[in-house]
Amino acid sequence: xxxxxxxxxxxxxxxxxxxxxxxxxxxxxxxxxxxxxxxxxxxxxxxxxxxxxxxxxxxxxxxxxxxxxxxxxxxxxxxxxxxxxxxxxxxxxxxxxxxxxxxxxxxxxxxxxxxxxxxxxxxxx
Amino acid sequence: xxxxxxxxxxxxxxxxxxxxxxxxxxxxxxxxxxxxxxxxxxxxxxxxxxxxxxxxxxxxxxxxxxxxxxxxxxxxxxxxxxxxxxxxxxxxxxxxxxxxxxxxxxxxxxxxxxxxxxxxxxxxxxxxxxxxxxxxxxxxxxxxxxxxxxxxxxxxxxxxxxxxxxxxxxxxxxxxxxxxxxxxxxxxxxxxxxxxxxxxxxxxxxxxxxxxxxxxxxxxxxxxxxxxxxxxxxxxxxxxxxxxxxxxxxxxxxxxxxxxxxxxxxxxxxxxxxxxxxxxx
Lengths: 125, 281
Known about the structure:
The complex is a heterodimer.
Chain A: H1 2-41, H2 46-68, H3 76-100, H4 110-124
Chain B: H1 2-7, H2 24-52, H3 61-64, H4 67-92, H5 96-126, H6 135-164, H7 175-206, H8 210-219, H9 221-237, H10 251-276
Helix pairs in contact in B: 2-6, 2-10, 4-5, 4-10, 5-6, 5-7, 6-7, 6-10, 7-8, 7-9
């Protein structure tokens, strides 16, 4: 009897702390979201706000995956598996954005299209 | 391991019967989420690229977006994420009543989020932004629509998990009853979303007043009655006291569902900043 009750208490204590941790986590994420919105309206340089937003986004992301998604308590392999996808996604996004930032990637306007058509017609003649 | 074996408690993070030491369902879910990361990464990048070079005729997103509504939807999804985390916790403790309540709470907040999205899309369509009106419309609807589909699938999964908690411990037939349960849920969801969205449109047009709700109730009486009737049937179906086949051993199923739901929340966190907030700079 005493063994089972001590086991039950031992099992309940971490569950209780986990409950508090999850509630605190949700509150922290809500506060960060509020700060993000506030940041957009602050009269600060755009680069500073952008940096702030991406830092807060990263903090929320990391907190979400490690605590809400229990990655902190899972085997390292789960973290590696998820980060493979995340790095590939981030790398693809970075490559695409770098490529399309080039001036040659600016989509043609109707003026440009008509100019190109004229040039092609001249070349055809 | 020895400690767990001695206490008889289930280790929810490790499975010593698999080669990796990770439960197969969890491993599958992490692999799926990694692939989904790449999927959303491509969609978000596409949206950003076309925001860098707006094509002629693109609308001004700052005039279209309602930050209040998006912020509300973000908080709603955050609360649902907390509830599903607590549901995983409750399953590990075999607290069936809490699991059911928390799953229902998550479904409710998931539906509120979807209602917000339907409301937002309705407003955008009125402003003339469609899937084919501009490149902004195409990338915006594809990205947020894909996320919305993920939320809808999550709500369906949550509903199936809720119904699963009623599986009887004996071998008595339960499939037909479960299908009925699911059908009532579907009817309540559709009628409920119609009622909530029309009430929101009414409040937007005529303000927050009793007369507005009376007018909405008059126009959408059928939807409101079906929602109320469906909720009563759901409450009746949920009153079973018979022993069920759902306990701590099912924690991995609820945890997989939780992982999926948290991922949806995290993707929204990124969309909220990258798609919505950046427009207000």
